[in-house]
Design a protein that fits this description.
The chain is of the alpha+beta class. The chain contains 32 helices and 26 strands. The strands form five sheets. A seven-stranded mixed β-sheet has the order 14-26-25-24-15-22-23, sandwiched between helices. It has a six-stranded antiparallel β-sheet with strand order 6-5-7-13-8-11, with no helix packed on it. A six-stranded antiparallel β-sheet has the order 16-21-20-19-18-17.
Length: about 800
C-alpha cells in the first residue's frame, strides 16, 4: 500500500516524506519586540534543511522543524547567535531524535527524563532570577530619575554645578539601567538589523549626548539640557519591560500549576523490599505502593487493593472514582481511602500529565493566523521608523532655518535653544521612542497564552493558536455517535415483564444476570452491571452454562432452566410462539428507541424483555442545543444502523436530514471534506481510532479525553472530561480570546497611527517641543502594559462560566 502511495507521488514529494524529520524547541534570550522575533524566524528559515520555524515573543521560544540529515541543533544555535541573539535547546535529546525513529529503550534502573521537568523548571527559575534583577535595576532607575526630574523641572539653574549633578545622576540611568537596550542594539546593528532596542537606544543616547555637549560646550547647542528626557525615556520603557516580564510570568501560571500537581516521591517494591525513590527514577514495570492520601506517582494499572481516587485534576469531576484490580490509574491523581498496589505503565514524558503540559506549551508557543499580519507589519516597521525619524530630522532642520523658531519656555524654566537642528533632533528622538512596536508583538501571543491556559484549567486542551482561531469561526459540527454523544458502552435501561409473568422485575433480573455473569459479551456485562446497580444479589448456583453464538445464553440458575436471547433462539428452544408474538408491541417500542431487547424465558415460559442501550451522555443534549443557538449546524455520523442513529439524534435534537448512519471511517472524512468544499468551517468530534482520519481532515479536530490516544493525537482540541459541554465552553473561550486579540491589535495599530504623527509635528506644538520624548516614552510603555493587561482579562473567563 505504501509503495503504491509513493508511486503516485512526485519524486520530490517522496523524498520529502522519507527525510528524517525532526523538531527542536529553543529557549531564546535577547528578544525585546516583534521585530526581534521576525529576525530570528527569517534567519532560521534560511538554513538549508529547515522546513519551518516559528518564534513566539511572549514565550521566548522558537519551534524549528528541520531535516536532521542536513542540519543539526548546533547549526540552529549558531544561526540564532549570528543574527544577534542567544538560544538554549529545550529537550535537546528529544529534539535531535527524528520524528520517525523510536528512542533507544532505557537501561535497567535508568531514570527517564521529562521535557516538562528539569528543563522547564530551569527556564522558570532563570526567568524568576531575571525578574528579580530587573526589579533591582528598575528601583535604581526610579531612585535616580526622580531627583533628575525634580531638579530639571523646578530648580533648574538654582545653584552652581547643578548640570554636573544632573549628569552624575543621569549617567547611571543611561549607562546601567539602559544597558540592556544598548547591548542589544549594538548586537543587532552589527548584523545590519534594527529592532525596538535600536529605537530606544538611539533616542536616549542622542538626548544624553546632546545634554553632555550643552553642559560642557554650551556655545555649540545652547544651555538647555535633556537629562530628564534621557532618564525618563530609559526608566519608563524599562518599567514597561519589567511589567511585561511580570505579566508573562502570570500568563504561564497554568503550566506552573500543572507541574505542581506531580508527585515527588514513590514507594517502589524492588528485590522484595519497599524503598522510597524520586518519581523521575520510576521505570515502566515497577511495582508501586500508594497509601491513602498520597498522589498516584505515575500512570499505571491496579494490581491489588480497592480505593476511591480523586481524578478532579484531570476530569474536573468532583466525585471520586472507584478503583480495584485491573483498573487504570493516572499519575498525580489522589488516592483517598485504601492502599493500592500498582504497576507503572507510563513514566516520565509518557504520562498523561506530561502530555497535558506538553500540549499546553505547544498551544501557548503557537501562532494564530491573525498574528501573521502583526508579524509582517513588525518586520518592516522598525526600518520604516528609522527612515521616518531621519526624514523628521531633515525636514524640521530645513523648515526651521526657512521659517525660524521662536524661543519657547522649557519645562526646566529656561529657554529652549532656538537652533533648528536641535528642535529637529528632539522631534526625531520622539519619533524613535514612540514608535517601538512592543504592543504589536505582544497583542496575539499573550492572549493565546492566557486563553489556552484557561482552557487547560477547565479540561480543554488546545494544541495551537490556529485551532483556537478556527473554533471561533465554526459553522458546522460533525459528531460521532458512540463515545461522543453517547457513553460508548451499553447499559441496562429497562426490564419489561411479559403479561402473566410468574416473577417480579427483581426476580427476573436476578435470574438473567446470574446466567449472564459467566459471559464476556458486552451486552451480558451490561445486564450484570445493571443488576448490581439496582442492588440485586446474584445467584451463586449456576450450572450448565452455555453461550450460543449469535443467539444468547442458557443455564440452570438455582435449579431453574433459564434462557436469554433473541426471538429466534427462544422459538428454537420451544418457547410458546404466541406469547412471543403477543409481546411484539413492547419489543418494537424498545427497539424503535434504539435499544437492544433480549428475551428472558424461565422453565420454558416467556418472563420478560431486558433492554440494553448505549445511552446519551449527561449534557450532550444541552450542549448541542447551545451550539445550535449560537448558529452552529450540527451533524451526526455513525457506523451504527439507521434506527439507532435516528433515535439518538431525536434525543439530542439533531435534524433527521443531518444524520448519516452505517458510515465507514473513510466516509466520515469524506463528509467533512464535502462540507469544507462548500466553504464551511468544520469541526469533527470523535473518540475512536476510526475517527482519526476525519479528525485530521477537519478544520478543527475535537477528541474526547475518554477516547483513544490516536484520536487525541489527530485532534487540535481535546476535551479531557469527554463531555460535549466542554466544547461549548471551548467555543465561548475562542470567541473571547479572538475578541481580546482584535482589541489588542486595534489599540496597537491605533497607538502608532495617532502618536507617530504627533511626534513628527511636535516642534509645532510649543509644550511638546522639548518634552515630546518624555511623553513618547510614557505612551510607549503604557501601550505594552495596556495590551498585556487586556489579555489578562481572560483569566476571569473561568469565573464567568461557572
Amino acid at each position: 500500500m505504501e509503495t503504491m502511495k509513493e508511486q503516485a507521488l512526485a519524486p520530490d514529494q517522496v523524498e520529502r516524506q522519507t527525510r528524517p524529520a525532526a523538531t527542536a524547541t529553543l529557549a531564546l534570550e535577547g528578544m525585546t519586540c516583534a521585530s526581534c522575533a521576525m529576525r530570528i524566524e527569517k534567519g532560521l528559515k534560511k538554513l538549508p534543511g529547515v522546513t519551518d520555524a516559528s518564534v513566539n515573543l511572549a514565550t521566548e521560544r522558537a519551534t524549528v522543524h528541520y531535516d536532521a540529515a542536513q542540519v543539526q541543533v548546533d547549526d540552529l544555535l549558531k544561526k540564532v547567535s549570528a543574527v544577534g541573539y542567544s538560544a538554549t535547546p529545550l529537550g535537546e535529546a528529544a529534539a535531535a531524535t527524528p520524528a520517525d525513529e523510536t528512542p533507544a529503550p532505557l537501561a535497567e534502573g535508568a531514570a527517564p527524563t521529562t521535557p516538562t521537568g528539569s528543563a522547564a523548571e530551569q527556564l522558570g527559575e532563570r526567568r524568576r532570577a531575571d525578574l528579580r534583577r530587573r526589579g533591582v535595576t528598575l528601583a535604581l532607575g526610579v531612585a535616580l530619575t526622580i531627583p533628575v526630574v525634580i531638579l530639571s523641572m523646578f530648580f533648574m539653574n538654582a545653584f552652581p554645578g547643578e548640570t554636573i549633578l544632573l549628569l552624575a545622576l543621569t549617567a547611571p540611568v543611561w549607562g546601567y539601567v539602559g544597558w540592556d537596550f544598548h547591548k542589544t542594539s549594538l548586537r543587532v546593528l552589527r548584523h545590519f538589523g534594527a529592532n525596538m532596542d535600536v529605537l530606544v537606544s538611539l533616542g536616549s543616547t542622542a538626548a544624553f549626548l546632546m545634554s553632555v555637549v550643552a553642559t560642557f560646550w554650551p556655545q555649540i547647542v545652547g544651555e538647555t539640557t535633556f537629562y530628564d528626557t534621557t532618564a525618563l525615556i530609559v526608566t519608563l520603557i524599562y518599567l514597561g519591560k519589567y511589567l511585561e516580564a511580570r505579566a508573562k510570568g502570570q500568563t504561564s501560571e497554568a503550566i506552573s500549576r500543572l507541574m505542581g500537581l506531580r508527585a515527588t516521591v514513590a514507594h517502589v517494591l524492588r528485590e522484595g523490599r519497599e524503598r522510597d525513590i524520586p518519581v523521575e527514577q520510576i521505570v515502566a514495570g515497577d511495582t508501586l505502593i500508594v497509601r491513602p492520601g498520597e498522589k498516584i506517582p505515575t500512570d499505571g494499572v491496579t494490581l491489588s487493593g480497592e480505593s476511591s481516587v480523586d481524578e478532579a485534576m484531570l476530569t474536573g469531576e468532583s466525585l471520586p472514582v472507584e478503583k480495584r484490580a485491573g483498573e487504570p490509574l493516572i499519575g498525580a491523581t489522589i488516592n483517598q481511602t485504601g492502599m493500592l498496589r500498582m504497576r507503572a505503565t507510563r513514566v516520565g514524558a509518557e504520562t498523561t500529565l506530561a502530555g497535558i503540559i506538553r500540549m499546553v506549551e505547544q498551544a501557548q508557543g503557537s501562532k494564530a493566523p491573525i498574528q501573521r499580519l502583526a508579524d509582517t507589519v513588525a518586520g518592516i516597521f522598525v526600518p520604516a521608523v528609522l527612515v521616518i525619524a531621519l526624514l523628521t530630522f531633515i525636514g524640521w532642520s530645513v523648515a526651521g532655518y526657512a521659517l525660524g523658531f521662536a524661543p519657547a519656555a522649557s519645562m526646566s524654566g529656561g529657554m529652549l535653544a532656538t537652533s533648528p537642528w536641535i528642535v529637529a533632533l528632539v522631534a526625531a528622538i520622539a519619533v524613535l521612542v514612540v514608535a517601538c512596536p512592543c504592543a504589536l508583538g505582544l497583542a496575539t501571543p499573550t492572549a493565546i497564552m492566557v486563553g489556552t491556559g484557561q482552557g487547560a484549567e477547565q479540561g480543554i486542551l488546545i494544541k495551537n493558536g490556529e485551532s483556537l482561531e478556527r473554533l471561533e469561526q465554526l459553522t458546522d459540527l460533525v459528531l460521532d455517535k458512540t463515545g461522543t454523544i453517547t457513553r460508548g458502552k451499553p447499559e441496562l435501561t429497562e426490564v419489561t415483564l411479559a403479561e402473566g409473568a410468574a416473577l417480579d422485575e427483581a426476580q427476573a433480573l436476578r435470574l438473567a444476570a446470574s446466567a449472564e455473569a459467566a459471559s464476556e459479551h458486552p451486552l451480558a456485562r451490561a445486564i450484570v452491571a445493571g443488576a448490581e446497580r439496582r442492588g440485586v444479589t446474584l445467584e451463586a448456583d449456576v450450572q450448565a452454562f452455555q453461550a450460543i453464538p449469535g443467539g444468547g445464553v442458557e443455564a440452570r440458575v438455582a435449579g431453574q432452566p433459564t434462557l436469554i436471547g433473541s426471538r429466534r433462539l427462544l422459538r428454537e428452544r420451544g418457547v410458546d410462539a404466541a406469547s412471543i408474538s403477543a409481546f411484539e408491541p413492547a419489543l418494537e417500542r424498545l427497539e424503535s428507541a434504539g435499544q437492544t431487547a433480549m428475551l428472558l424465558a424461565v422453565d420454558g415460559a416467556l418472563v420478560a424483555a431486558l433492554a440494553v442501550a448505549d445511552t446519551v451522555k449527561f449534557g450532550s443534549q444541552e450542549a448541542i442545543a447551545r451550539l445550535q443557538a449560537s448558529g452552529v449546524t450540527t451533524w451526526m455520523i455513525t457506523g451504527d444502523n439507521h434506527r439507532t442513529a435516528s433515535s439518538i439524534a431525536a434525543q439530542v435534537g439533531i435534524a433527521p436530514e443531518h444524520v448519516l448512519a452505517e458510515a465507514l471511517p473513510g466516509e466520515k472524512a469524506e463528509q467533512v471534506t464535502k462540507l469544507r468544499g462548500a466553504g464551511r468551517v468544520v469541526a469533527f468530534a470523535g473518540d475512536g481510532i476510526n475517527d482519526a482520519p476525519a479528525l485530521a481532515q477537519a478544520d478543527i479536530g475535537v477528541a474526547m479525553g475518554t477516547g483513544t490516544d490516536v484520536a487525541m493525537e489527530a485532534a487540535g482540541v481535546t476535551l479531557v472530561k469527554g463531555n460535549l459541554r466542554s466544547l461549548v465552553t471551548a467555543h465561548a473561550l475562542s470567541r473571547a480570546t479572538m475578541n481580546i486579540i482584535r482589541q489588542n491589535l486595534f489599540w496597537a495599530f491605533a497607538y502608532n497611527s495617532v502618536l507617530i504623527p504627533v511626534a513628527i509635528a511636535s516642534p509645532a506644538i510649543p509644550w511638546l517641543r522639548e518634552t515630546a520624548p518624555i511623553f513618547a516614552a510614557a505612551a510607549m510603555a503604557l501601550s505594552s502594559v495596556t495590551v498585556i493587561s487586556n489579555s489578562l482579562r481572560l483569566r476571569r473567563f473561568g469565573a464567568r462560566q461557572v
